[in-house]
């Protein structure tokens, strides 16, 4: 468990690109992956392997950013969607205690109360509860698709919390990120469940972010199978990777960040 860290994730990304053996790559980092990608862009050794980068709905990139308590996007479906059904390990006292105390920071992720493999196998999609609803807009609360099943769902809460803690412990990334030269695009959802300042911090500090695409009508899950959301996201990403004009306005620009935050968009 001690080997899980945000730095290790960045090193693994570099090793993965090397193993592909295809030269510099176009890469999309979503959510926690956006954090890995942002930190990769700030590391010249890793950034040299990247051709273009799409940072979608990133979490906090470092300790100072993680401490920001700003606002989120427009209302999500949290508290509005029907309760997810199915088996849940957090109904079992030992799992409930272990996962709950880890989330509160009272247990470290490497606690022996629940082993890593055991936790991976025990944790189910239903255990996420309102976390799933929080990644959709309030208007979609009663039509959230079933995205995770026993066949394809796997989640290690302990490893996730361990990596999150190493991000919180990391010093400011801004000085290194300001030297980034890899062309990048930032994607922000209208009903984002991420703190807005986590997202705008990337735009403010990475001079190589060429465009921002504010995605209307979607939550943190920008591509979610509803309406034409997948096609719209694909169009935005494809246009950037192909160097074509953006399908949506470049918003917010760096100059617009203060107004964007002030207006609670």
Protein architecture, described:
The chain is of the alpha/beta class and 265 residues long. It folds into two domains: 6-75 and 169-262, 3-Layer(aba) Sandwich (Rossmann fold); 89-165, no CATH class. 38% of the residues lie in helices and 12% in strands. The chain contains twelve helices and four strands; from the N terminus they run H-E-H-H-E-H-H-H-H-H-H-E-H-E-H-H. Strands 1-2-3-4 form a four-stranded parallel β-sheet, with helices on both faces. The termini are far apart.
Rg estimate, integer Å: 19 Å
The CATH architecture of the largest domain can be named as: 3-Layer(aba) Sandwich
Can you write the helix and strand succession as a string?
A: HEHHEHHHHHHEHEHH
**Count of separate DSSP helical elements:** 12
Q: End-to-end span in angstroms?
A: 38 Å
Strand arrangement across the biggest beta sheet: 1-2-3-4
**Category by helix and strand content:** alpha/beta
> Any low-confidence stretches, pLDDT <50, length ≥5?
none
Please name the CATH topology of the largest domain. Answer: Rossmann fold
- What is the class of the largest domain in the CATH system? Alpha Beta
Total domain modules? 2
Helix content: 25-40%
CATH superfamily of the largest domain: Alpha/Beta hydrolase fold, catalytic domain
| Average pLDDT | 89
* Overall spatial form: globular
The largest β sheet comes out as: 4 strands, parallel
Q: Report strand %.
A: 5-15%
Q: How many DSSP-defined strands? A: 4
